[in-house]
Amino acid sequence: MTYTVALAQINPLCGDIAANVAMHRMCIEQALDAHADLIVFPELSLTGYALRDQTLTVMRRPGAAEFAPLVESSRNIAICAGFVEEGEDGIPYNSAFFADGGALVHVHRKIYPPTHGMFEELRFFGRGRSLSVFETRFGCMGIVICRDLFHMLEVSTMAALGVQLLLAPSAMPARGFQGDELSIERTVQLAVGSATSLLGMYVAYVNRVGFDDGLGFYGGSMLSDPELGVTASGPRFEAAQVLGTIDTVHIARHAYQFPIHREEDLTIVRHALNERRTQ
Fold first, then answer.
1. For 143, phi and psi rounded to 5 degrees?
2. pLDDT value at 178 more than 90
3. Which of its termini does the chain have fewer beta carbons within 10 Å around, N or C?
4. 104 close to 70: Cβ distance less than 8 angstroms
């Protein structure tokens, strides 16, 4: 199967859901004009990132009326977008939804909200407790939100569970300037490259641009192929929509030539964890 993914590297407005929904709809129209089958937006794309005291104001249930136009648009193109989810417990979660065929298919809650240095997500968000693995018309997919991508146990377990395309919406601030290079960009490239070259998954990494409360986001979105490496990439510091092609033959060929995830035995990991707990 071959299909096209659009990486929507946008600059959301902080706290303005209506304006961000309109921005999403414009991007979706652009992606449809380019015959894309799937569009992926950054982390918290419908709300902005540095929300602080606005967090409770903008949190919504996944089926909220404001999101209905996007869910309706998913009849023509699959959509992954980020939002503040109102949990059943009343707690806000940093979440992303996947919609396709005019319906909400899956919601992922960020498992590892960072709280150190410039980050303070756990002051405002709860933690997700479930790995994101779900079936779609494109095959088995998973979602990791920003910091989740750096937790290799999470990513490798998802690969062992059959994930073929990992969607990685992000709001990664620019930091670690060394001349023309960004140290954080190299770290992201390393994480994405490990998932593709070692675990055999496609990764659609979509990072935002612009500023929220003094934080500047660098973009650098990319689609990484398990055989070819990075095949599509977004610019730094500019809003852009980038198209990439996914060919599932490359996944099958990588699995045959370098069958790491087929060799993975989760029972060994489970046994080791159980043994450790009983010590």
1. -125, 130
2. no
3. C
4. no
Domain 2-278: assigned CATH number = 3.60.110.10
Q: What percent of the chain has pLDDT over 90?
A: 83
CA distances from residue 171 to 73, 151, 215, 241 in whole angstroms, order as listed: 24, 16, 10, 16
User: Which residues, in sequence order, are CB contacts of 177 under 8 Å at separation 6+?
Assistant: 183
d(CA 8, CA 257): 32
Token look-up 């043994």 returns: 275
Distance (Å, rounded) from C-alpha 191 to C-alpha 248?
21
**Alpha-carbon distance 212 to 26, whole Å?**
21
Q: Are 206 and 235 in contact (CB under 8 A)?
A: no
Torsion sign over Cα 173, 119, 168, 208: negative
- The one-letter amino acid at 15: G
Q: What pTM was computed for the model?
A: 0.95
Phi, psi of 268 (to 5 degrees): -65, -45
Residue 81, beta-bridge partner list: 97
Q: Does residue 145 sit in helix, strand or coil?
A: coil
Question: Stretch 229-237: mean pLDDT, rounded?
Answer: 97
